[in-house]
Write a structure and sequence with these properties.
This protein has helices at residues 14-25, 74-85, 111-121, 140-155, 230-234, 251-260, and strands spanning 2-6, 29-35, 54-57, 66-70, 92-99, 126-131, 163-168, 178-181, 188-197, 203-212, 238-244. It is α/β, with parallel strands linked by helices. The chain has one domain: Survival protein SurE-like phosphatase/nucleotidase (Stationary-phase Survival Protein Sure Homolog, Chain: A, 3-Layer(aba) Sandwich), CATH 3.40.1210.10. The N and C termini lie far apart (60 Å).
């Protein structure tokens, strides 16, 4: 199969090399287009006011892998690959293997997930892979699972183009408890801004903080309570898979607003243009 791989950790990240080489050795046609430097937590940002540059890269990946280093964001990389660098769409868009978790609400900030989501927007089945540790560098179990998951989905394709957010626990393969289809949990952070002063005496702020994982996980409106969250299942060393969609419409919000009568609000216009007033 033809596989496009991107990430947000950059072209030299061990996670993307392990994933790309493992899939190339399995006989897949692998194309890598990823940022030229780390672009973590960039979300789905796009480069609109600067040129995007892409350079062919050799000597990093397996000799059959075609690779480009891109000056843009993870989402830029996938858009550029699909719109300019590839001669045809791939069978899958993959992102990762990210060095660190993308659990629960992390997906709202994640460049890894956003790169994969760009493929889903284009109607291509896409998967984001993350190893849930910043210290562990054993990416091979995650890459091996990626190889098996792609082979499975080739035989049992999803009903529609979907983004699968996959998190792998940072343990040896023999200690992985299994695979769980989960729902998105809640992962909040206690944010702090460190106030610093640069050599020229100007004040700047550095965002830091700690993750708060042990939160009550609310029941899902449409899913049975026995389907646990990714935040819960990863603690028991399960590989977690959460199907995500880019349509973020809230069902309860739609009907709640309709029932509130907001559509019946009387609209009154003053007729006065205040745009030029100070």
């Amino acid at each position: 199969m033809k596989l496009l791989i991107s990430n947000d950790d950059g072209i030299f990240a061990l996670g993307i090399k392990t994933l790309a080489d493992t899939l190339a050795l399995a006989g897949h046609e692998v194309i890598v287009v990823c940022p030229d430097r780390e672009r973590s937590a960039t979300g789905h940002g796009l480069t609109l006011h600067d040129p995007i540059r892409a350079e062919v890269v050799t000597g990093i990946f397996h000799h059959t892998v075609k690779a480009w280093s891109c000056s843009g964001t993870p989402a830029d990389c996938v858009k550029l690959a699909l719109g300019a660098l590839l001669d045809s769409f791939p069978d899958f868009v993959l992102s990762g293997i990210n060095h660190g978790a993308n659990l629960g609400t992390d997906v709202l900030y994640s460049g890894t997930v956003s790169a994969a989501m760009e493929g889903t927007i284009e109607g291509i089945p896409s998967i984001a892979f993350s190893l849930t540790s910043f210290s562990c560098k054993e990416f091979q179990p995650a890459a091996d699972f990626a190889k098996d998951l792609i082979a499975h989905l080739a035989q049992q394709p999803l009903a529609e183009a979907t983004l699968l957010n996959v998190n792998i626990p940072p343990v040896p393969a023999a200690q992985i408890a299994g695979v769980k289809i989960t729902r998105q949990g809640i992962r909040r952070y206690f944010d702090t801004f460190q106030k610093r002063v640069d050599p020229r005496g100007k004040t700047y702020y550095w965002l830091s903080g700690e993750v708060v994982q042990d939160l009550d996980q609310p029941e899902h409106l449409h899913l049975p309570p026995d389907i646990e969250t990714d935040v819960q299942a990863i603690k028991r060393n399960f590989i977690t898979i959460v199907p995500l969609q880019f349509n973020m419409t809230s069902t309860t919000g739609v009907f709640g607003l309709k029932d509130s009568g907001v559509e019946g609000l009387k609209i009154e216009f003053s007729g006065e243009d205040v745009s030029d007033k100070k």
